[in-house]
Amino acid sequence: MRNRNCGRKRGFHSSRQPGQIRIRALGEINQSHAAFAHLAHCPHNRCLCAHALFKRRKLRCVDESPRSAEYGEPFVGVVEPRVKIAEAGKQYNLTPYGTETMHILRAEKGFIIVGQDTDSSMTPDDLNMGWCVGRTKPFSWIGWRGMNREDCVRDQRKQLVGLKPIDPTKWLPEGAQLVFNTKQTIPMTMVGHVTSSYLHNSLGYSFAMGVVKGGLKQIGERVFAPLADGSVIEAEIVSSVFFDPKGERQNI
Fold this sequence. Notes:
Distance between the termini: 26 Å
Strand order of the largest sheet: 6-7-8-5-10-9
Structural class: alpha+beta
Radius of gyration: 23 Å
Number of strands: 10
């Protein structure tokens, strides 16, 4: 498990509800909000598990989902809490993961990093997320005018797409410029760039996200990344959601 933040944030995922792990690990410990007043803001008691197991440390639940919980802790003594929590949750298939894992998992689902996969010029439509904008409201709303400017609705805007290398072992460097035609003189006409990229893993192939001019209408087309060493990586433009595209795994 790798972590870019020196181990200060750790997460655990289980095939069972985290609350079940909490009960088994804590036994008769008082889990009421009154007993843990400094954590009373948390709507779920699952973060109390780490605090009760390690009273001398200040641990805090910083994120959670129906099957996952993430906690923050002081840098000193970073290993012991992970080991003991993982041990307590073995019977529930508890799996520890770090921030590097979260980077990969979010990209597999097409979740963006603002400022990396997007810039300040992009709109929800550019991210193929126009569905989340309530355009049928009977009144005007903040952002309506900006999103309907002539520049924001033109066809050749850069749009977020998935990139799947034709050779599954090839890795598209982040920041690599993209072209539709490699048989052109330099300087080539760039049509986009790679924003996030990961080596082949559980998906069985390398994958990337990037912005391409008119990309959402180019699904299934090929794009090329000419690299500084003279090599070219060919990729297919696909949906930015690589894993569980219908979201069926969230129905638990």
